[in-house]
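Progress against Task 2.4 (sequence-to-structure conversion) is shown through the following example record, which the project officer requested during the mid-term review.
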Amino acid sequence: MKYDKQLGILLAGLIWLVATPLPAEEVPGLYEAEVPVESQDREVREVALGVALKQVLVRVTGRRMVLTMADIEPLLEQAPRYVQQFRYQTREANGNDEPTELLWVRFDKRAVDRLLRENGLPVWGRTRPATLIWLVVDDRRDRELLSSDMDTRARRAIEQQARLRGLPLRFPLMDLTDRRVISVSDVWGNFEDNILQASARYDAEAVLVGRVARTSSGGWSGRWNLYQEGRSQNWNVAGQALEEAVVPAVNRLADLLAEQFARIGQNDQHEKLRVRVADVKGLADFNRVMNYLKDLALVEEVHIEQLEADTLTLIVSSRHGRIAINQAVSLGHTLKAETVSMMPAQSSLPVTGQVITQDTAMPSQTRPVDLQYRLLP
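Structure tokens generated for the chain above:
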């Protein structure tokens, strides 16, 4: 493969200087954790680092079972070797609580990912499916539908657990638009059509519906339904405290999504996929595509095969296969999947010269591709 020398130099010099918008559902802080500590002694810190690494392993793999592995303890004892940065900080007092000293730690992403892969565990990337939550809480005095501007005990518990599991969640606005199409009774009765109609504006990949009520004995019970890709799953939870009726629902949601989206590489060798992206109209677009694909946890390497007119052809290496890569890409809002075609793409811009050429009898745009996308604005 031959490259136009001047353009190659230009790309190499400028590609990393162009700002790239982040994917809409990118979860920050996957490799960070906060752990309460009683002192700054070294022995206390090393124990806390093991606790912090537990949080990170669950969040990155999406699987709680990682903590039940027979050989997990020796790995946790090595937690200090994976630390990239740590510091002590104080959490301000809340109500009657005393201020809490915390150890904040960031682990090295590459080292943790390598550790997981060496032990046959998945690495769930930062781009994750967003879930919209419709939740009604009945405390035997009133039924309340939670909205995005409400600060309630149930919402705090849900969001705290979602952060621990690395899940992007959304609560409805419950503005005039929502109130025209949905009510507390719709959510309490789990009227699917009304709920899904009201959910459409939020552009979420999954919808979780919860009905949590205080029981006559003083405990709490919860009924939960998950709607995703035309399928529905339901489960019940119960406990003495309100948190015991909502936190397990977040864990179940994380488990179900991780089972679907957090893949374990099965192949010893990288599978190479030819990926074509249309509407790449300049360096900024080129940079967006390259950074987006390289940031996907399932992707090992990305190489340019052809950049011609407004169509970019890449060779993407992964141990996970075409279906898993396509599924991961579909979670973001950068590329839109299109039907794979052998027909040459038509440029919307005047072609002033070939950007990249190859020593081959078959033009790249007429070669079979494994995945085909269009870059979204």
